[in-house]
Write a structure and sequence with these properties.
CATH class: Alpha Beta
Shape: globular
Strand order of the largest sheet: 1-2-3-4-5-7-6
Radius of gyration: 16 Å
CATH topology: Aminopeptidase
Structural class: alpha+beta
Number of strands: 7
Order of helices and strands: EHHEEEHEHEE
CATH superfamily: Gcn5-related N-acetyltransferase (GNAT)
Strand content: 25-35%
Number of domains: 1
Length: 163
């Protein structure tokens, strides 16, 4: 039995992303990415009919404050995670898993056959999540990512079969 006061998840609710969320997405993205995406980039993506995503909010708040988001694209039976981010204050609560589960559910409804993503080989937390979700490494891009000090690391290309 899990006691409510010990739960890591404070009851996040996932809602479809909209163009109006672009500025908030850019802010969250900037917390971890050396070259964060601008609001205009999110607006452009969210305007495409093949792109969808989910934002995590807490119920009962007056304004729509996002604590994390995932953005994906589905075309011709294949899909990719474009980006996923969780605000620093909301980490270690299972939110990444919850958002990925929502994407997987949507892709099941769309009858997608495979989901791809790229992840920094140094991102241990994300790698752990993706492996638990059944992703496997299918490629590598050496020197793809750079951290703020200029150190370079590889992007691992990962795939999960959906059928």
């Amino acid at each position: 039995m899990r006691l409510p006061f010990l739960s890591r998840d404070p009851g996040y609710v996932l809602q479809p992303l909209a163009v109006r969320d672009s500025a908030a997405l850019s802010q969250i993205h900037a917390e971890d990415f050396v070259r964060p995406w601008a609001a205009a980039e999110f607006e452009s993506l969210l305007s495409q009919n093949t792109v969808f995503g989910f934002g995590a909010t807490l119920p009962g708040t007056k304004r729509r404050e996002l604590h994390g988001f995932v953005l994906a694209r589905a075309v011709a039976g294949e899909a990719e995670i474009l980006t996923i981010a969780v605000a620093r204050a909301a980490r270690r609560r299972g939110l990444g898993r919850k958002m990925m589960d929502a994407v997987l559910s949507r892709l099941h409804a769309l009858r997608a056959e495979a989901l791809f993503l790229e992840v920094d080989e140094a991102n241990v937390a994300a790698l752990g999540l993706y492996r638990k979700l059944g992703f496997r490494e299918v490629g590598r891009r050496d020197g793809y990512y750079a951290d703020r000090s200029g150190r370079r690391s590889a992007a691992l290309v990962m795939r999960r079969d959906l059928r």
